[in-house]
Amino acid sequence: MSFIALWNARPLVRRLLFPATLALVALPALMGHGYQVDEQSARRLGDAFSGGAAEARDATTAFYNPAGLVRLKQREYVAGFSLINNQTDFEGSGFTTDGLNLIPISGGDGGDPDSNIAIPHLYLALPVNDTSVFGLSINAPYATGTDYERSWVGRYFATESELYGVNLTGSIGVVVGDHLSLGLGLSLQMAEGKIENAVNAAGICALVAAQGGLELIGASSCEALGFDAPGTATDDGLVTVEGDDLGIGFSAGLLYQFTEGSRIGFHYRGDIEQRLEGDVTFNFPDYTAAVLPLADPNLRARTVGGFLDLTTPEAASLSGFHQINQRWSIQGDVIWTRWSRFQSLTVAVSDGPDIPQPQLWDDTLRFALGTEIRVNDALLVRAGAARDESPIPDETLNLNFPFEDFAAFSLGATIKLSERLGMDIGLQKTLAMDVAINQGSLTSDAAVLQGNLETDIFSMAMGITYRPGK
């Protein structure tokens, strides 16, 4: 019958499961460049993360370019945190169907989905001998959370997400010539999280009825089965996805110093392959059990195992640093990220068919420029600007990844507290992104969402640098 052909591709389950599982390692509604989080250093935040592979003036170079570790001649510890304030506002409407007519979806604009995410970081630099320095970095490259009201108008595409990831990297920098040093790093990456989406059970039943599917179970109508009118939240189901994994990757870099105050750096961070494994839990009202599996066998109440094979893409950065005089320096870089790895990803469900989802992401370039001025022996001030491309094409832009190209501006300072202790402060404002959302299909998802999502991001960071001496 035509109903079977209509639902054979299972786009509804793709809509529910794939964004949810991907969000366990992604960064919805935080940054414009895929799911990476820049805020891994207070000092770097203050200059818009410009020149990270070349400046090499504190222990954070263990993460940004291990080849720069050789410039540190004594033990050094950097600890701190970043706080990211993300304000999200949606204006728009959603629609479902009763099988014949367009029905508005009830609900508001999501309540207060704004988030404040704290991201800690720790870096160590330990000289081994005159030509090599060991580095260690612990940071959180993924950290996010959104919490829309479960009854909001976009509930069939996003309700709640929680994510926290940790990256532990050991690295070594070695002098190989009068001007050249090389670095290598090995990383252990952990990610875990949870996400929930509502399921439009009433709309699905209406589509089944319109295709004659209720005859298979001897029902005369959705109302006879106990369903309320489509568009309300009364019959909604809920899908919850939880998962985690560990992955291993490597990084490599080089630093060439023309003079003490002029150098270039190159850093390559390799891809990390991960299999996010966990549970997918479907919750539905009891009276939906007879009809929803007609639409798709995955739409039945249970908890089932699943996984997603994910490759975090590789990235390469080229940076330059130049000390103009004793008080003034400039720096800049360009970073290429191979987001084109995300052409299509597949969720594997243990008791059902695989769920493919096209992404069609593109490679991106990020550009940043920064400067620093020494005011006096106790104070350094800095500023920077950055522009980043979004990897997401218009045809796959969605509520979980509502990003466009963005620009950011930063200010920062380093305050010398004593001969061994210093404090870094950084502030960054990302220009607001206003993205048009046109998501879903009445014939396949039983829901559509149309409107505009504005994302406004402000970041701040504070760090302490301690040099105990040789």
Word description of this protein:
This protein is mainly β and 470 residues long. The protein has one domain: Porin. Helix content is 10%, strand content 53%. It has helices spanning 2-7, 11-22, 42-46, 61-64, 201-210, 222-225, 292-295, and strands at residues 76-97, 102-104, 115-129, 132-139, 143-147, 160-175, 180-199, 237-259, 262-269, 272-283, 302-312, 315-323, 328-337, 344-349, 355-358, 364-376, 379-388, 406-416, 421-441, 447-466. β16 and β17 form a beta hairpin. It is found in: Cell outer membrane.
Quick summary of this structure?
The protein has 470 residues and is mainly beta. The protein is built from seven helices and 20 strands. It has one domain: Beta Barrel (Porin), CATH 2.40.160.60.
Which homologous superfamily in CATH is the superfamily?
Answer: Outer membrane protein transport protein (OMPP1/FadL/TodX)
Q: What is the level 1 CATH name?
A: Mainly Beta
Low-confidence stretches: 1-32
Strands of the largest sheet, in order across it? 1-3-4-6-7-8-9-12-13-16-17-18-19-20
The secondary-structure class comes to mainly beta
Ends distance = 79 Å
Quickly give the CATH architecture.
Beta Barrel
- What name does the CATH topology carry? Porin
